[in-house]
Amino acid sequence: MKKRPKILTEKIKTSVTKEMKQELAEEAKALNLKVSELFRRKIENKSVYTNLLISILNEFKKQGNNINQIAKHCNETNQINSEVIQELIKIKEMYWKIFEEVKIYDDNKNI
User: What is the pTM assigned to this prediction?
Assistant: First the structure.
């Protein structure tokens, strides 16, 4: 049975610095949320990183498919050429790039 959505009836006004507002806007954009939704999730202590993690997992799935295609090619031809090695290097670099982005985000946001 689906939960009924909460009806939001109360408003809260608050003041923040220009930098805080910009940071909230950037974080909301990165997570594909409205600032108000990000703020509510933070107040409720819900994970605001779900969208980010889903995006990362989807990228890993794509790269996993690429690796499977390369493995299939190598198994069918019983050889690895320089083109295959270059593709594997690209995938490794992409993994490290994603890892570094997540680490930087984690260091900045303390997730």
Answer: 0.43
How far is it, in rounded angstroms, from Cα 50 to Cα 88? 28
102 within 8 A of 56, measured Cβ to Cβ: yes
Q: In the chain, count of helices (H) and strands (E)?
A: 4, 0
**Positive or negative CA dihedral for 45, 51, 52, 54?**
positive
Helical residues (DSSP H) of 4-81, grouped into ranges: 18-30, 35-43, 50-77
Average pLDDT over residues 15-23: 92
Answer yes or no: is pLDDT of 101 > 80.
no
Q: What percent helix, strand, coil does the chain show, rounded to 5? A: 70, 0, 30
Which pLDDT band holds residue 111 (cuts at 50, 70, 90)?
Answer: very low
CA dist 87 and 74 (Å) reads: 12
Amino acid symbol at 21: K
Measured distance CA(87)–CA(66) in Å, rounded: 9
